[in-house]
């Protein structure tokens, strides 16, 4: 039978215990720093050691997330933290930053590394590149389809896929929305979730098409697809939820444990509707099969509500002076959480006092009419949702305590005259031998195998359960139960310690040839979108022009000044590509320019890319001037090699690339691509502050969302030159040729100063 791991989230010790007791094979969690969920409780070093020991005792692995981008002044602290994790026997690190990846592979070659979904691993070339670095596993982008997963499994690197929980609307690691709009970087674990805010879809004539939470996606749920996913040869099934309560973690782990076990034995599985209903109460935004199964439009998104939907429990049928009257369609208990759905806004509360037939009651069954104190502004006819269930949460905690997870062990016991008693305990990997006193000769009743088995099987105070037992005995021996108890306790304690300290590390070779290449590069580069923009750049003698459209490139490549820039979601060949935007281009990077999509946040990342043989690197668009200065200074402390660094000084920042198209979802909602709506008009998403974010869709129907504001740092070029940066880029999106010309002339003038 194949081995597929069930990987659960833990944002606290309570969640870690809940996940382990509910049947997970591994847990992913973060310390107090460098994790992509900075606002989760997370683990300090003492709690982390406790969690590692607890998990290892049950044979559960611990993966620690360092899935953020690291500033130069944080590197030494990060390296110290990695040393602590290594010495604490963490099973693997989940990493985003290329500089940190390079450091770990060089410093700890037996420390397993997983490429975070924040690395934007979405194609075969990316997997081949990561495999060449000795990365054990890649967490695939949520946008990868089941057909692609089956093909990617042939690369020979472990694949981890999300199977349940919240879906980011943007490709992870490529979203700068929170960073640009709210100065809270998702790549630093501080996402402000601008995608869960309301927007209005408009076109360039200001016509409105739709209003609502147009970027908010439903939660992924693949319970009924488990057999198909297991058959795709993935290594690990990931459950999202480090920000969720421990009861949610327990519920979802238990659900998927059952589904996975059925799939591994190819036994038909039917989703337990009551268990799924309970999980909905704990948290859901509505369910979808997600990008994995090609869901689009209303199958994927929930424009009506961006938050926890719970389950429908009733409807307001009457408003009295001091009471709200509700007709229940499901059970409701005192202390449950409820929300009233209304057009203008939702309001919620805890059920503190509930009346049935005028009397206070702590529970009410479905089809009952109840009354609540009228303390909220609600309307007759509005739906009532149950968003938390007091007794359900108590029940889940009780189940964990009353039916703890056990580890099967085998025991062999032997006792002979004039020989110390012997007990061997094995768990399939470790074995422990314990010797006792010499047994006495029985004067009356002799001990038998059944009596000894019964005594040694008393393991309830431990994590172990006696699964198999063998025994060898001389006849007519009397063995005291106290001695058997002592031997059992000593053996199981030794076994427990061995399991706590378990480490499965295997050295993974890693050696890449240093291909440092520094070649001439113009001081001014332009990235453009349209033929009109290309013509304007050529007319102004821009020496290096980069386009995304292959047809446009083929039209102008004879000029030797127009070059091909890869997509952030590249599906084609890199043969003629000169500028790369994602990891796949690094598989054969010699002479390539790294775009900002390959995040360079620190000098170690810059040095790593330099050694790979790239021609130039573009600094992350999230870096402020002080961070750029620190990066450049640190790089020159680390290396005497020159490096071509590009700074983007003009353009709308691409804040998001998404497989979800709000245009089609809002206007047609036909679950089909290539609707061509975006080719006839320019569409925008308008926020509540009336900021308008332009959308440009590519030929694969990926939606590229741009900042409402155009960044212009051309005046800072002299300062950047003082820092050692000599190459500057202008990015054009919706600009006319006249706007483009004015900007280029300004940049050239400033460069000449």
Report what the structure shows.
This protein has 753 residues and is α/β, with parallel strands linked by helices. It has 4 domains: 5-167 and 218-265, TIM Barrel; 311-402, Beta Barrel (Elongation Factor Tu (Ef-tu), domain 3); 407-500; 524-667 and 704-751, Aldolase class I (TIM Barrel, Alpha-Beta Barrel). It is built from 20 helices and 39 strands. It has an 8-stranded parallel β-barrel with strand order 1-2-3-4-5-6-7-11, surrounded by 5 helices. An 8-stranded parallel barrel has the order 29-30-31-32-33-34-35-39, surrounded by 4 helices. Helix 9 packs antiparallel against helix 10 (273-282). The radius of gyration is 30 Å and the shape is globular. The N and C termini lie far apart (69 Å).
What is the straight-line distance between the termini?
Answer: 69 Å
Please name the CATH architecture of the largest domain.
Alpha-Beta Barrel
**Can you give the helix content as a percent range?**
25-40%
CATH fold-type name of the largest domain: TIM Barrel
Describe the strand arrangement of the main beta sheet, using strand numbers.
1-2-3-4-5-6-7-11
What is the class of the largest domain in the CATH system? Alpha Beta
Query: What's the pLDDT, averaged over the residues?
Result: 94
Largest sheet descriptor: 8 strands, parallel, barrel
What share of residues are in beta strands? 25-35%
Instruction: Work out the helix count.
Output: 20
What sort of overall outline do the alpha carbons produce when their principal axes are compared? globular
> What is the CATH H-level superfamily of the largest domain?
Aldolase class I
